[in-house]
């Protein structure tokens, strides 16, 4: 099995892709590219058994309805609600709210934060994969699955804050150390120095690990009640098993 992880930003310069090969009982980082363009991402996802993408797969349904109503001049505030209370469902998808309930972390709002730029790029990538015949299900059951690296790291008992940006290289190095301690079967090989200097590369590796968890069925899935929203908004797959299960089950 080969899994791919994509730390997706609005532009290629801050985007990274990682490829993990899974021989029996081990995982080997065979390639990492920082500064990945659309063509490379599509090529990687087309060839992978499963690809994990760190980016929202859609917008909140209620936000889409709100914008549509606003365009027509028919916005109405729900009775009995005011301010932040009624705007919450415009800013956060169902899966974002589930992640907050499960982990205490709140993903960036795709309708009220700059991550929307990355999601526009993601939407085009998912459409291209579908055009090329790769099944895309925003619930994560197809070729790709939505990943939130910080939540994965927290679920796996690893450092999940404070390792972003060049000013925090020491914290990033500590995260890589802890990851290798928790997963001694993970061989970063010649790509370890890049993981220690690029949080984008490390998040791509985490996304590739989470893609493996998704491929093995070791992640959260929408309930019947949540499935409708997940189909349009996307669904963040949270690991439900320790890192060691990634090699114990394959």
How would you sum up this structure, described in words?
The chain has about 250 residues and is an alpha/beta fold. The protein folds into two domains: about 1-60 and about 95-250; about 60-90, no CATH class. About 45% of the residues lie in helices and about 10% in strands. The chain has helices at about 40-45, 60-70, 85-90, 95-105, 115-130, 150-155, 170-180, 190-195, 200-215, 225-235, 245-250; strands at about 1-5, 15-20, 25-35, 50-55, 145, 185. A hairpin with an 8-residue loop joins strand 1 and strand 2 (about 15-20). The mean pLDDT is about 95. This is Putative nuclease with RNAse H fold. InterPro entries: DUF429.
Number of domains: 2
**Share in helix:** 40-55%
State the secondary-structure class: alpha/beta
Sketch the major β-sheet. Answer: 6 strands, mixed
How many strand segments?
Answer: 6
Radius of gyration: 18 Å
Number of helices: 11
């Amino acid at each position: 099995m080969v899994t791919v992880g994509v730390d997706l930003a609005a532009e290629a310069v801050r985007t990274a892709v990682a490829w993990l090969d899974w021989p029996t009982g081990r995982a080997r980082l065979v390639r990492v590219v920082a500064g990945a363009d659309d063509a490379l991402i599509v090529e990687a996802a087309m060839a992978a058994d499963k690809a994990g993408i760190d980016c929202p797969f859609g917008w909140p349904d209620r936000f889409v309805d709100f914008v549509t109503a606003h365009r027509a001049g028919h916005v109405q505030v729900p009775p009995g609600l005011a301010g932040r209370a009624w705007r919450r469902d415009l800013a956060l998808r169902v899966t974002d709210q589930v992640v907050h309930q499960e982990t205490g972390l709140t993903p960036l709002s795709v309708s009220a934060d700059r991550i929307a730029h990355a999601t526009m790029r993601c939407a085009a990538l998912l459409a291209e994969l579908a055009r090329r015949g790769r099944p895309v299900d925003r619930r994560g059951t197809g070729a790709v699955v939505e990943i939130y690296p910080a939540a994965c790291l927290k679920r796996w008992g690893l450092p999940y804050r404070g390792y972003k940006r060049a000013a925090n290289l020491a914290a990033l190095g500590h995260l890589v150390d802890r990851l290798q301690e928790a997963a001694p079967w993970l061989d970063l090989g010649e790509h370890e120095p890049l993981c220690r200097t690029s949080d984008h590369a490390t998040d791509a590796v985490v996304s590739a690990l989470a893609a493996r968890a998704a491929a093995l069925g070791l992640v959260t899935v929408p309930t019947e009640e949540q499935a409708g929203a997940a189909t349009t908004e996307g669904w963040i797959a949270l690991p439900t098993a320790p890192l060691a299960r990634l090699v114990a089950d394959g």
